[in-house]
Design a protein that fits this description.
The protein is α+β, with helices and mostly antiparallel strands. The N and C termini lie far apart (36 Å). The radius of gyration is 15 Å and the shape is globular. The longest helix is centred in the N-terminal third of the chain and has 16 residues. The strands form two sheets. The protein has a five-stranded antiparallel β-sheet with strand order 1-2-3-6-7, with helices on both faces. It has three helices and seven strands, in the order αβββββββαα. Bound molecules: zinc ion. The site of zinc ion has 5 residues, from α2.
Length: 166
């Protein structure tokens, strides 16, 4: 088990689309174990592999329900519905939260660690974390979901922060 440093905004790996997993081997099992440990250590409710610098289509999440940590390999969002504004944050953009409107409900198809088809579907925190993690695997960040004007302000803040101006 290992806890990895989490890549933050500005790291190019976060902007690259991740590669699908073709063989769920021991390396993928180890990666998932380490990702779960890193997620809980952060602490966070979801983590995508590229957030620890591994450009593969793997994410873990814990929607704070009775099901505990779950894994999605090669996930795709196949259905969304409704609309919900939620104060969303990201381990890769630490200490910032923005009111972000996204579909309230999401359904994701993926593979589990045994290579079986799995489906995760729900609203609330589960619906939000599913969309957030699949976005990561597509090279997107929560900033991309902000309205243009808010995004501009957020980017300015983050740049100033990186330069030590705040
Ligand atoms: Zn995130």
């Amino acid at each position: 088990m290992a806890i990895y440093p989490i890549r933050t905004f500005g790291d190019p790996v976060l902007r690259m689309e991740t590669k699908p997993v073709t063989d769920i081997d021991d390396k993928v099992h180890t990666l998932v174990r380490d990702m779960i440990e890193t997620m809980y250590d952060a602490p966070g409710v979801g983590l995508a592999a590229n957030q620890i610098g591994v450009s593969r289509r793997v994410a873990v999440f814990d929607a704070q329900d009775e099901l505990g940590p779950r894994v999605m390999i090669n996930p795709e969002v196949v259905e969304t519905a409704g609309e919900w504004e939620y104060d969303e944050g990201c381990l890769s953009v630490p200490n910032h939260y923005w009111e972000i409107t996204r579909p309230a409900f999401a359904r994701v198809k993926a593979l589990d660690l045994d290579g079986n088809d799995v489906e995760y579907a729900g609203d609330g925190l589960l619906g939000r974390v599913l969309q957030h993690e699949v976005d990561h695997l597509n090279g997107a960040l929560l900033l991309d979901a902000l309205p243009k004007r808010v995004r501009k302000k957020a980017l300015k803040e983050l740049r100033e922060e990186a330069l030590g101006l705040t």
